[in-house]
């Protein structure tokens, strides 16, 4: 009877403690089970994302037939595929062409996007809203639909198989999206700064260049990264508008595959080499990416 009498208050006390612990758990805190489930999901998602990259790197270190027999890679581990790609193919020329095109697209795309985004953010002129909608509409057309009209335009301007022609085409992809993003970022910068610049005698362009651009570095970093990736990894336009001597990396790598067979060793090695510059650019601008994306995506 005594045991029964004391068990009731003890159970009640334990239950009340558990209830109190749940009641006092912060809004941002998670239970142990929820935390384990979240980390398991994140680890799984990370493994799924990283596995293809690691697999390509692994295959590139083996013989050309290692994609059929992956276990042979460890027996013949080496850099033969990389030596072949760098010394016996046109990869260095493709790399130089890509650097020229991607660099020019990045610089020109950032300048045009920043100017357009600032003008739309600060100024009101006839066609203001129509211009913004035009930027959106241009992103709705599939790339395949635009190849023929763009080819005709470049042919009329005698820009087929030229760096300038391909850079202008890539800007038609990068500028609309980047202008929208930068417009949202410029909206977060107080207009008082523009007014202070005008009081000090700066022209509108001087205000933009000296005062606004330094404050917009996170947004410009995102714009530069997107413009660079647009030109660095694009295939369709480069393959159609550029000849063999001006092929970029993404278009040139197609030569490793034919209708009958594909040289997977060379393709995987070239893929790894292509990813290195993009990774370097990402590391250079990564500290600005989150700020630029969130500010430009939540405003305007």
TrEMBL record:
Q: Where is this region: Disordered?
A: 1-30
Q: Which residues cross the membrane?
A: 33-58, 94-119, 131-151, 163-182, 264-285
Principal cellular location given in the protein's record: membrane
Name the residue ranges with Basic and acidic residues bias.
20-30
Q: Where is the composition biased (Low complexity)?
A: 7-19
**Xref: CDD domains:** TM_PBP2 (cd06261)
GO MF term list: ABC-type maltose transporter activity
Keywords, A to Z, come to: Cell membrane, Membrane, Sugar transport, Transmembrane, Transmembrane helix, Transport
Which protein family is it in? Answer: Belongs to the binding-protein-dependent transport system permease family. MalFG subfamily.
User: What is the protein name given in its UniProt record?
Assistant: Arabinogalactan oligomer / maltooligosaccharide transport system permease protein
Organism encoding this protein? Actinacidiphila cocklensis
């Amino acid at each position: 009877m005594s045991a029964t009498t004391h068990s009731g208050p003890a159970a009640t006390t334990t239950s009340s403690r558990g209830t109190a612990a749940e009641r006092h758990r912060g809004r941002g805190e998670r239970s142990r089970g929820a935390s384990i489930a979240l980390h398991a999901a994140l680890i799984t998602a990370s493994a799924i994302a990283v596995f293809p990259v690691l697999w390509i790197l692994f295959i590139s270190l083996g013989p050309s037939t290692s994609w059929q027999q992956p276990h042979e890679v460890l027996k013949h581990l080496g850099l033969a595929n990389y030596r072949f790609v760098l010394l016996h193919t046109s990869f260095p020329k493709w790399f130089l062409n890509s650097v020229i095109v991607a660099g020019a697209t990045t610089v020109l795309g950032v300048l045009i996007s920043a100017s357009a985004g600032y003008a739309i953010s600060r100024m009101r002129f006839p066609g203001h809203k129509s211009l913004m909608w035009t930027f959106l509409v241009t992103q709705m057309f599939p790339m395949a639909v635009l190849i023929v009209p763009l080819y005709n335009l470049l042919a009329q301007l005698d820009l087929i198989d030229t760096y300038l022609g391909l850079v202008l085409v890539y800007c038609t992809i990068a500028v609309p999206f980047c202008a929208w993003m930068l417009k949202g970022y410029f909206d977060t910068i107080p207009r008082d700064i523009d007014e202070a610049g005008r009081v000090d005698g700066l022209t509108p362009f001087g205000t933009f260049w000296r005062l606004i651009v330094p404050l917009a570095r996170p947004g410009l970093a995102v714009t530069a990264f997107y413009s660079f990736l647009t030109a660095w990894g694009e295939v369709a336009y480069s393959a159609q508008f550029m000849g063999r001597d001006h092929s970029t990396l993404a278009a040139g790598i197609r030569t490793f595959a034919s209708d009958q067979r594909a040289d997977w060793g060379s393709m995987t090695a070239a893929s790894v080499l292509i990813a290195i510059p993009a990774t370097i650019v990402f590391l250079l601008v990564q500290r600005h990416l989150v700020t630029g994306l969130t500010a430009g995506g939540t405003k305007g």
